[in-house]
Design brief:
10 strands; 11 helices; 6-stranded mixed sheet; single chain; globular; 257 residues; alpha/beta
């Protein structure tokens, strides 16, 4: 059963610039799907459309549909979508640097206020990321890059999502930190049933976390396949990584798995 279904999605920015054209794919309940492609391929535009953030970037959905639980949510306010179980971790973390770690988590749970179990959700987040529990009263801006990414994910989880959208969560992080984040994301998917839609340049994270992927070029899906098969494809290596060396890294990662 698909939790998210995108059909024929076409987006323009400012009435002129085509962001994506006819994009379609599905994310199963508790599944994990990767959107792959070079910078500017349209991956972030798709995430913005799903999360309701397009209008803040002067983007408009011209055609297509986005179904959440078989209900078309095109045009829905982002706050309504959060309430329906969609949470996004933005590229660049976007934490509230001057607020404490505890206050950042509290802000993430705002959409879930009034629902029982808020403290249990916070404790679950701290169990997933023990380092955050050690820094609850510390200003979030003083955290390391990896800790800030953990906080950004934890803040999103405070909204109790059924679908988690991740935009470049590994950006600028050390491989060991990326591995730890991948382990946590796999845990919330397998144990908590949270579906994941991932945009990331880390092939290691895509391979470790997702089951299937879609390659975007110039705003269109040009190839869809299981993630390992997709990243083993020479054309995908050229479009996604741009270098032969990058392709060799993918081969090594696939062989390791």
């Amino acid at each position: 059963m698909s939790l998210l279904r995108v059909e024929g999605l076409t987006v323009r920015y400012g009435g002129a610039v085509l962001g994506v054209d006819g994009v379609g794919f599905e994310v199963p309940a508790a599944g994990a799907v990767a959107l792959l492609g070079a910078n500017g391929a349209g991956k972030t535009t798709v995430l913005r459309a799903v999360s309701g953030l397009l209008r803040f970037h002067h983007g408009v959905i011209e055609r297509g549909a986005i179904y959440l639980d078989d209900r078309n949510v095109v045009g829905a306010d982002c706050s309504r979508l959060v309430g329906a179980g969609v949470a996004q971790v933005l590229e660049g973390r976007r934490i509230f640097a001057e607020l404490s770690v505890a206050d950042n988590l509290r802000a993430g749970g705002f959409a879930a206020q009034g629902r029982a179990g808020g403290e249990a959700v916070r404790q679950h987040v701290l169990d997933l990321f023990p380092l955050l529990g050690e820094r609850l009263e510390q200003p979030a801006g003083l955290l390391s890059g990896g800790e800030q990414q953990m906080l950004a994910i934890g803040r999103a989880l405070m909204a109790r999502p059924r679908l988690l959208l991740l935009d470049e969560p590994s950006l600028g992080l050390a491989p060991l930190v990326v591995q730890r984040i991948g382990e946590v994301l796999n845990r919330i998917r397998q144990d908590d049933g949270v579906a994941i839609l991932l945009v990331d340049q880390s092939t290691a994270l895509a391979l470790a976390l997702t089951e299937s992927g879609h390659l975007l070029e110039n705003g269109r899906v040009v190839h869809s396949a299981p993630t390992a098969e997709l990243l083993a494809d020479e054309r995908v290596r050229a479009a996604y990584l741009g270098t032969r060396a990058g392709g060799d890294l993918v081969t090594a990662e696939i062989e390791r798995r």
